[in-house]
């Protein structure tokens, strides 16, 4: 069963939150972070993208950069831009967005910010659906070590729970601690502090009844946090198991509230084929239908939309080309990788092949069209989004999803709460 605990969050004062908060470190590059931070010395980018404090071109993996992160984190606290709460508590975090996947209607999802138990990650109670890369794990471990803190949260999903839903609804009717709209995407963000002892006990007990929690986004941060916790335990001769370093910060959302967008592909060439030859070869495994010049979005599982030579196409995988009983093989990301990218285009390693790139669904089909029409790419392939049930089923079965399969939106804002390990 899942173990969580409240913690003394380190947070910006209410009047500074909009100056401090930021997008996550891994959704923008160094120059974008430099531009967004601008002259704002309170921006969290100085801690999570500290290379912006050096000359342009400085590697984010430079040892000086990690040291700068720690220096900035210390300075933020000394100047009162980040202040630690007096009491251990939970936090409720709400995100309000309008996305095409939700019919462009306003939708709010409510997460609970907890200290998740590192041991649960090691034992598989906290379940993953993606592989992690050692170099990225090491990068995040260095960042956690040098700051002795989880500066940014991990994004978890949990099975819907009526007791927690009722508690969240109670807080949602009250005035939040933070309430702002992010300037980049226009999404709304609110935060409440859960300091009532009875409510704290309820949250702890309800999570304690859950057999599993699921990583939605932040696999490398989860792995790094768990590894640092293990390191600290080995280094402490008086280790008890209840120290703060045994926990890492996660925002946990009910699975039914989450929105997963399509995660699409663009490729540079057709592996020596003409467009006509490529389309003809597609017909072996797909029903191919030209849809014209207007953007076309796949309407159901096992249908793909393709953009090639100014025309949108519908590709429907034929029966028998996938196994309904194979939890991985039945995924559209697997079907497209096997029957199109590998078999026809010779792209076998999605993580390393330079002939392919990936576009998150928030950018829309227009971004796929732009990259093909510009001549940068030859063809674009848009996938139908995976479901949260598919992710949870795969994680429960102990399997791993293919690379670049999920794109959760909206992303968590960073800087609303930080978790110290000491």
Give a description of the structure.
With 422 residues, the chain is an alpha+beta fold. The chain is built from 13 helices and 21 strands. It has helices spanning 17-20, 30-37, 45-48, 63-78, 118-123, 134-147, 162-172, 197-207, 219-235, 275-282, 332-342, 364-373, 388-396, and strands spanning 4-5, 10-11, 83-84, 90-98, 106-117, 126-127, 149-150, 154-158, 178-181, 188-194, 213-217, 247-254, 260-261, 263-267, 286-292, 303-308, 311-317, 356-360, 379-382, 407-408, 419-420. Strands 1, 4, 5, 6, 8, 9, 10, 11 and 12 form a 9-stranded mixed beta sheet that branches. It has a 6-stranded antiparallel beta sheet with strand order 15-17-16-19-14-18, sandwiched between helices. It is globular, with a radius of gyration of 23 Å. It starts with a strand and ends with a strand. 41% of the residues are buried.
Reconstruct the topology from this structure.
Blueprint: E1 4-5, E2 10-11, H1 17-20, H2 30-37, H3 45-48, H4 63-78, E3 83-84, E4 90-98, E5 106-117, H5 118-123, E6 126-127, H6 134-147, E7 149-150, E8 154-158, H7 162-172, E9 178-181, E10 188-194, H8 197-207, E11 213-217, H9 219-235, E12 247-254, E13 260-261, E14 263-267, H10 275-282, E15 286-292, E16 303-308, E17 311-317, H11 332-342, E18 356-360, H12 364-373, E19 379-382, H13 388-396, E20 407-408, E21 419-420
Parallel strand pairs: 6-11, 8-12
Antiparallel strand pairs: 1-5, 2-3, 4-5, 4-10, 5-12, 7-21, 8-11, 9-10, 13-20, 14-18, 14-19, 15-17, 16-17, 16-19
Helix pairs in contact: 4-6, 6-9
């Amino acid at each position: 069963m899942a173990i969580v605990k409240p913690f003394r969050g380190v947070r910006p004062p209410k009047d500074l939150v909009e100056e401090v908060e930021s997008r996550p470190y891994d959704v923008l590059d160094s120059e974008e972070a430099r531009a967004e931070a601008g002259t704002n010395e309170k921006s969290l980018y100085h801690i999570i993208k500290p290379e912006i404090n050096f000359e342009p071109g400085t590697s984010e993996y430079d040892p000086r950069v990690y040291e700068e992160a720690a220096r900035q984190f210390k300075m933020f606290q000394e100047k009162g831009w980040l202040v630690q709460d007096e009491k251990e508590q939970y936090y409720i975090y709400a995100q309000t967005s309008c996305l095409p996947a939700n019919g462009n209607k306003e939708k709010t999802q409510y997460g609970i910010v907890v200290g998740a138990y590192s041991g649960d990650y090691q034992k598989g109670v906290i379940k993953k659906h993606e592989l992690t890369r050692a170099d990225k794990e090491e990068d995040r471990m260095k960042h956690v070590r040098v700051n002795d803190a989880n500066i940014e949260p991990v994004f978890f999903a949990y099975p819907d729970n009526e007791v927690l839903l009722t508690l969240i609804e109670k807080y949602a009717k009250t005035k939040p601690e933070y309430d702002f709209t992010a300037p980049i995407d226009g999404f709304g963000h609110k935060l409440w502090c859960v300091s009532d002892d009875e409510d704290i006990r309820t949250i702890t007990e309800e999570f304690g009844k859950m057999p599993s929690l699921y990583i939605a986004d932040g696999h490398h941060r989860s792995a790094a946090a768990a590894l640092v916790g293990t390191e600290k335990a080995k280094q402490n001769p008086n280790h008890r198991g209840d120290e703060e370093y045994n926990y890492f910060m996660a925002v946990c959302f009910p699975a039914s509230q989450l929105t997963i967008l399509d995660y699409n592909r663009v490729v540079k060439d057709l592996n020596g084929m003409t467009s006509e030859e490529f389309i003809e070869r597609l017909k072996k495994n797909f029903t191919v239908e030209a849809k014209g010049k207007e953007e076309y979005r796949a309407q159901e599982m096992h249908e793909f939309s393709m953009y090639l030579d100014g025309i949108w196409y519908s590709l429907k995988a034929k029966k028998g080309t996938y196994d309904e009983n194979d939890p991985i093989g039945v995924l559209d990301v697997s079907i497209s990788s096997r029957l199109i990218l590998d078999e026809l285009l010779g792209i076998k390693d999605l993580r390393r092949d330079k002939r392919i790139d990936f576009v998150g669904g928030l950018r829309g089909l227009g971004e796929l069209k732009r990259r093909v029409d510009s001549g940068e790419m030859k063809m674009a392939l848009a996938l139908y989004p995976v479901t949260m049930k598919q992710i949870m089923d795969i994680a429960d079965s102990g399997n791993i999803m293919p690379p670049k399969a999920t794109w959760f939106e909206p992303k968590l804002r960073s800087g609303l709460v930080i978790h110290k390990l000491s």
